[in-house]
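Protocol step 4 of 5: obtain the predicted structure for the target chain.
Materials: sequence only (see below). No template structures provided, no constraints applied. The aim of this step is simply to have a reference model before the mutagenesis design in step 5. Sequence pasted as it appears in the construct record:
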Amino acid sequence: MSLLSFVVAMKLFDCRYSSVNLVITLVLLGFGFLVPSNRVVLLAQNASPPGEVSAGPGTRPASAVYPLDGVIDSSGTVWVVDRNAPGVWKYADSKLELAIPGDKKFRKPMNAARCIAISPSGELTVGDPATREIYRRDANGNMAPTVSGLIGIPMDLAYASNGTLYIADVERRVVWKQASATDKPEVFANVNPRGLFVDKEDRLWVVSQDEKQLLRLDAQGKQEVIVGERVFDFPHQVVVDSKGQAWVTDGYKKALWLIKPNEKPTVAVSGDPLQNPVGLFLVNDEPVIVDPHSQAVYKLQGSKLELWFRIEKP
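Step 4 output (structure tokens):
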């Protein structure tokens, strides 16, 4: 190994030239455990600066914000859950604020807010995998736990018109049904769910992680297969507009799919500015996408995506 390998390796591993670090590095070089000089240079160029934590090869470094899901209330205010902030952002009158902060301690309330929904009565509801809990905002504005940690990992939420809450649980691989905030959740369907949406006919649409990727269930849990083969790369959420058209976000494909009634899925939009489309909700019957990697919320206008607002810490 060359002297260049040694020098660059010291920088790569952020060594302080102590005797211990020097000996370890020389041993690694001597036995060929360190990579060739050209590879070391490449790694050093991609290494995190001192003081920053690297996410590892092929992964993204941790960011201060990571928005995952959103919803709009009757007043036109948009609420967006953020895994890393953590908490719930409020966007109103072109202003953004972290209106409901989560606890930054692991396994504390709202530490990993993942999904959000609003009940027919306007009750803001958040799913938090860190505490295996569903929080609903009470009359005093506090986020109160409602399932006593009885579920696994909530990935998406959807309300029926009668106030029944459906919960997609990726750990238990089931959809839970909770009749009210004071009722215990019950298993509704074993469908390995990821995304949920209730349409205007109170049918539950499910993005499944099984081969049958998109299902529709009636109030009794009877299933109808909408997409029966693996078409999507990594589907996240689904919404259904007033025309009965389903829209599905696909993180790996960086795309939004359109599924018209009795037709095969087609890609509506893909690529830039989308980096990892996850969250999906409707505004004026048009899909709105929450993208955690681009840290932004996009509106679909016709056949094009337009930036609505970005999620940025002040």
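Step 4 remarks: The mean pLDDT is 86. The CA atoms of residues 77 and 218 lie 30 Å apart.
Proceed to step 5.
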